[in-house]
Write a structure and sequence with these properties.
Layout: H1 2-15, H2 33-59, E1 63-65, H3 73-86, E2 88-92, E3 98-102, H4 104-107, H5 109-130, H6 132-166, H7 170-182, H8 190-198, H9 203-230, E4 238-241, E5 258-262, H10 265-291, H11 298-304, H12 324-334, H13 340-355, H14 364-371, H15 380-389
Antiparallel strand pairs: 1-5, 2-3, 4-5
Helix pairs in contact: 1-6, 2-5, 2-10, 5-9, 6-14, 9-10
């Protein structure tokens, strides 16, 4: 009998989680994987296109003007520089009146991309300063308490095993055990009550919704900018430029208009199309981030139902999912590698489903009691014996 108890002690000791106070939770994720992907694309892609636009601008003149043949090289360079600075297309309408059309989106392209990247980074800053401090403290406490609650359950079974070994009368042991279960001595309700309080808090979920709403707002503003300004000059490769201003206004040998060609038009078109395509692909991802808040991650909760006093599901304590608790559950799922107890409880849940037809197993205490060689409830022969003694 002592050999069986020794084996049970070893099994329970191995089931205890190691204490990682010194190095634990250093890699805590405070951004969901999809949010991190949206941030990298929404901020990094405009910066990449900006570098492409600047590289094209610095590699050579973005326009090429057809100066008169009697112009020298320096005069032709002046024409290119002057037309690029003004970047205005002169034409005549049907009534013969002069009409001016500005082509400034070509010149403002790299700076507009920089402004877009800065705008897309604002929701990230909002999340970092408004939500991350509170979220990190919540995750540290909850992850620590979940692992501690699991360890408490294992130590409780170890204590029960020692008491059973020392007890000379099995009736006394089982009576005390049933009394403890009836009085809920095995339950540690601090964590459950804390999570229940988080259902009535909405600061994290409000910040998360505001972050994604700002992303959608800035994406819509990007569409408006591209459609209103870029589309108007998207196909215009040549324009008529006038350099007869200032001291050159009365010069008769200078033509009224000089035709110029935008050599950077292909870069402009690539940037416009790729920006519209990338942000169109990001919109469903952002909308999906909204929809995740409309349902509970019940799989994570069902696994931790094995812990004593963690019956948010069975007691139907979950209400509307749009609250801080749902956000915390999403981040617990993202930090599942930090929850060492999750893998152990997942295995126990699988084993529980296979053994639930033979035994009344509700918590990890019941299951580990069974594995340690004790019945989760009073054996039938003891119950029958008590009935015989007290008919």
């Amino acid at each position: 009998m002592s050999l069986a108890h020794t084996a049970a002690e070893y099994m329970l000791s191995d089931a205890l989680l190691p204490d990682r106070r010194g190095s634990r939770l250093k890699g805590l994720r405070l951004e969901l994987p999809l949010d991190q992907m949206v941030k990298c694309v929404a901020v990094g892609f405009p910066l990449l296109l900006m570098s492409l636009a600047f590289a094209q601008e610095f590699s050579g003149s973005p326009i090429s003007c057809f100066s008169p043949s009697n112009f020298s090289i320096r005069q032709a360079a002046y024409v290119d520089s002057s037309c690029w600075d003004s970047l205005v297309h002169h034409e005549q309408d049907e009534a013969g009146q002069d009409k001016i059309k500005s082509l400034w989106p070509h010149k403002a392209l790299p700076y507009s991309l920089l402004a877009l990247a800065m705008a897309m980074y604002l929701p990230v800053l909002l999340w970092q300063y408004a939500a991350v401090p509170a979220l990190s403290s919540d995750l540290l406490f909850i992850i620590s308490e979940l692992d501690k609650s699991y360890n408490r359950s294992i130590r409780l079974v170890q204590h029960m095993l020692k008491i059973r070994q020392k007890s000379s009368d099995p009736h006394v042991f089982w009576d005390e055990l049933e009394k403890a279960r009836k009085e809920r001595y095995f339950e540690f309700p601090l964590l459950e009550r804390y999570l229940a309080c988080k259902q009535r808090s909405h600061s994290l979920v409000a910040t998360y919704l505001l972050r994604n709403s700002l992303l959608l707002l800035f994406t819509s503003a990007t569409y408006l900018y591209l459609g209103h300004f870029h589309l108007d000059v998207f196909f215009q490769e040549e324009f008529s430029c006038s350099i007869k201003t200032g001291l050159l206004h009365d010069e008769t040998h200078i033509p009224q208009l000089i035709t110029c060609r935008l050599t950077s038009l292909s870069i402009f078109q690539i940037v416009s199309l790729s920006s519209a395509a990338i942000y169109t692909l990001l919109v469903p991802v952002i909308i999906y981030n909204f929809t995740r808040l409309c349902r509970w991650d019940k799989r994570l909760l069902s696994v931790y139902e094995m812990l004593p006093a963690f019956d948010l599901l069975s007691r139907k304590m979950l209400g509307c999912p749009i609250n801080d608790l749902n956000v915390i559950l999403l981040f617990l799922r993202a930090n599942i590698s930090e929850l060492i107890s999750f893998s152990w409880l997942s295995v126990l849940c699988v084993l529980k489903d296979t053994a639930i037809q033979k035994h009344n197993i509700d918590t990890v205490v019941d299951f580990m009691t069974l594995l340690a060689g004790l019945e989760p409830s009073k054996p039938k022969h003891l119950t029958q014996q008590m009935c015989d003694e007290h008919p």
